[in-house]
Design goal:
Rossmann fold; five-stranded parallel beta sheet; homotrimer; alpha/beta; four-stranded parallel beta sheet
Amino acid sequence: MFPNNLLSVADFSRKQAEDLFDLADHFEKHPPMGLLDRDQIVGTLFYEASTRTRLSFEAAALKMGGGVISVPDANDSSAKKGETVADAVRVMSGYCDLIVVRHPIVGSAAEAARTSLVPIVNAGDGDREHPSQALLDLYTIRKERGEIEGAQVALVGDLRFGRTVHSLALALALWPGIKIYLVAPAILATPTAVLEALQAAGVEYRQTECLEEILPDIDVLYATRIQKERFKGEEEPLYETVKDFLRITGQTLKAMKKDALVMHPLPRVGEIALEVDDDPRAIYFRQAWNGVPLRQGIIATMLNRTS
Amino acid sequence: MFPNNLLSVADFSRKQAEDLFDLADHFEKHPPMGLLDRDQIVGTLFYEASTRTRLSFEAAALKMGGGVISVPDANDSSAKKGETVADAVRVMSGYCDLIVVRHPIVGSAAEAARTSLVPIVNAGDGDREHPSQALLDLYTIRKERGEIEGAQVALVGDLRFGRTVHSLALALALWPGIKIYLVAPAILATPTAVLEALQAAGVEYRQTECLEEILPDIDVLYATRIQKERFKGEEEPLYETVKDFLRITGQTLKAMKKDALVMHPLPRVGEIALEVDDDPRAIYFRQAWNGVPLRQGIIATMLNRTS
Amino acid sequence: MFPNNLLSVADFSRKQAEDLFDLADHFEKHPPMGLLDRDQIVGTLFYEASTRTRLSFEAAALKMGGGVISVPDANDSSAKKGETVADAVRVMSGYCDLIVVRHPIVGSAAEAARTSLVPIVNAGDGDREHPSQALLDLYTIRKERGEIEGAQVALVGDLRFGRTVHSLALALALWPGIKIYLVAPAILATPTAVLEALQAAGVEYRQTECLEEILPDIDVLYATRIQKERFKGEEEPLYETVKDFLRITGQTLKAMKKDALVMHPLPRVGEIALEVDDDPRAIYFRQAWNGVPLRQGIIATMLNRTS
């Protein structure tokens, strides 16, 4: 459980998340340089490449005064020799104070946490969880909208393979009054397990293939990338048919509330037209930039260095 | 324009270059540790691999007291998912204070600069520009020769694809009395656009395929690697025929002035024989080592931390 | 010779090794933060991927207050353009204060040392030497057993390609009373050159294919990975036949002394069953973790910063 590890959105309470957001707000106003000792090291171990998640954790650690060791492409090293993620993390945990791990197989982060000497952040395990991204998204909503409570949020695009939206949907369920619209083509619909978890959490949701009909109602439009690399084998040809479905354009914005938010975990490919970037409601770059203070909050909380 | 960005050799004046060289000289005598705050971070984003350019910028930043975040092979990460360099740089610009970017496509750095929150250094965009290398070369000439003015410089080897020599030729044109010899086999001759730019700048130049005839006259012999990776499609077989053309050996040195300089941006493959290394005129390693103070000068100037 | 370079186990004396171990012990009790100046930089240049060796050197340097520049996969950069390791190291030696280099070709580190401005650590050159690993292994034996002298050590597994065991066997020969059992299938037997070196050093050794018969006698069981990547050409099919030979299990432990040590340089694939991990004699993770203080000792000694 957070703050010992951050493996799943099920690892933190609403209270813990709000405290974390307060801390991130504080760090943005008062840069936390020196909060880590110089010999406190954050390790990043990525079996799938990432720019944003890895760099924002690394920048976060450096700007707190700590050090960084990194394996940006772990598949090229020990994994190729057949080492398990559990062994790799256990070794690395003797060299650093916290490990951020991304791995293509569901459950890898939990497996790593069992053998690690130090706290583990799951930065994505297969198509399941990416809790620090969910926290970043929620933090951004709170910062831009004032509060998360009562938000009507449309999750749009790839709801089948998108670990980001799975984590976000379940995390939103911690706040009252949330309504979630799940907008995806049938082939990319939300997995039953995620729907059941939303039901179990008592969160109101609705599935639809039609974005237009809900645009006037929503506070947040959260678009996601159709992940080409997840279409394998006989499903591969389907990528071309669905990739332009639900593209966000200037036209989309016209039908939305004046104070709505357009978010995206990035990288985007074609899901959001460039013309959208200049609209004040397009906050996906600010969302990415929030990664530094939010991840500083995570590091500080997990290493018990909050002040 | 420099010092806001460093995208092209057209971005700086002769005065700015000379001031930068003075600063690099100063940093070599008085190491600038502490000139950057610990939370000032230099980011390196390389879509083509590089050792020298990337490491010298990173060492420069660290030795000024700053931090470093790096994507040493950006093609393995977000680019593979289809993200544009403009989006990647825009995100990264929220995590650091200056970005050094190399990309195989001409104009990428300028595109990146349009969306970045922080200054951009173009560390090579396709076969066009590599301005920090040109500054390093000029700095080395000034340091070794006393002044750049009046130098007779032979650019030798691949003048077609070599971005280094394009940038250097145009930058040399800022000083008076320069004469440039463009020495290359016909298949690797200087592009017309570069020749026209030299003409427009009023610099005296001469194209030749014969190195021997100019050896007694030149002050600087600047050799370049024949870049195998630029020979594509039907031109690929030509690589073998041209690669040993214009090889620099002990014999070459015998025909040169006693105080001439032999330079090379490195890496070399077979263009310079190992026997040349021990000649005092062979300064290509010192040229590479100048990368740290020169790039400290660039970082300091762009971040307005010159003292 | 150490401490100028660390290229081979032949580079250090028993006295130098014991002093180094004392220093590592001291650093473990009194973390050496600040022993390096902030502008002292350790460079890691790896032509073969590594997690453990690279990260432990980098963590070691950071936790001493120094900086790190790294080429985690040098084959992707200048080497692909045809640059020699000697040139690459010579350039890099102008950017940092010590270089840790791994390269697949025997003799590369020595070649690098000839042109480098700064001390070189050989972190593996082909199937020959990996002296900092040998020192780490010896340090671990001393720390766990009290002394190295008189140890009966079984080197088990791939004794043909395993550079780790070659370096370790020769280094053990520096202590009196050592007995080495070389346990391997015929196809992976110790090279004659290594056997001759052991003979020349006057160390007692015995070759066997049968682990069981020696289990009751040994103080240290040093298992190694069968390196799939070394089986090339017509020998490739043999990998499958030998890979499970000499697997260490709970059953193996039952026949061993109560205070014996089970070691492995890691990564392991199937050579040691997971059930062994919980036995107090299984010290391979502690062995890996010792990498930080031991490598801090190496860095401090080579940079003459031992106090």
